[in-house]
Design goal:
The complex is a heterodimer of chains A (61) and B (155). Chain A has one helix and no strands. With 61 residues, chain A is mainly α. The chains are: A mainly alpha (61), B mainly alpha (155).
Chain lengths: 61, 155
């Protein structure tokens, strides 16, 4: 819990809510970027695995 | 009319004037008391008591200063609650962003998800940084904010 011992002005409270609002927005952006990166990586991994599996089958033939 | 009778009437008049003066004085005092009572009642009702469950204020037991102190305490609690609420939203967003990506790992040897783990590590650090920076900015605002009532309330 943040401690303060002064009665803050409405402007200060508004500013605090804006700061935290911006933090939520930034975090959600980071999460979106993370999910996109991971999805891209997964597609890449799947493609590599498929290529490796096809190679194994060809080698067996 | 004789002189005696006239003096008697003058005496009677004086008595009546004294009586009238006393009654008028009483009426004035009652009016003053009524006015004071009205002002006190108005002063009492001008205090905004926040609608917070469990918060009760017995005006007759408190001085004006004590009532003001209690009002400030409740106001402070309300402000802290708003700040805390905003912060909880940030924490919830941070927790959601740091929740591990739901990767279904196929049972294939050599399936390497280390790159995914690496991306998640970076994300976690970025989220921690955003949360820390926002807290720091808020602390600064609180520290630098001018108290509305011109003084610091120490509870």
């Amino acid at each position: 819990m943040l401690q303060n011992k002064s009665i803050l002005s409405p402007d200060a409270i508004k500013l605090i809510e804006e700061i935290y609002g911006q933090a939520v927005y930034d975090i959600n952006q980071i999460k979106k970027e993370r999910d996109k990166k991971i999805n891209d990586l997964l597609r890449g991994i799947d493609a590599k695995q498929a290529a490796a599996a096809i190679k194994e089958i060809r080698d067996l033939q | 009319m004789g002189e005696k009778e006239l003096n008697s009437l003058i005496g009677e008049k004086k008595k009546l004037e004294d009586k009238l003066s006393r009654v008028t004085s009483k009426i004035d005092k009652s009016a003053e008391a009524a006015l004071a009572a009205t002002q006190a009642a108005d002063a009492k009702f001008s205090i905004v008591i926040p609608n917070i469950s469990g918060y009760e204020i017995a005006e007759k037991h408190y001085s004006k200063e004590e009532i003001e102190k209690k009002r400030l305490e409740v106001e402070l609690e309300r402000i802290n609650s708003r700040i805390e609420e905003a912060r909880k939203v940030v924490q919830a967003a941070a927790q959601a962003a740091k929740t591990k990506f739901n990767v279904v790992v196929p049972n294939i040897s050599g399936y390497d998800i280390s790159e995914i783990n690496s991306v998640e590590r970076v994300t976690d650090q970025q989220v921690d940084q955003v949360v820390a920076e926002s807290d720091k900015k808020v602390e600064k605002v609180i520290k630098e904010s001018e108290p509305v009532d011109g003084g610091t309330l120490v509870i």
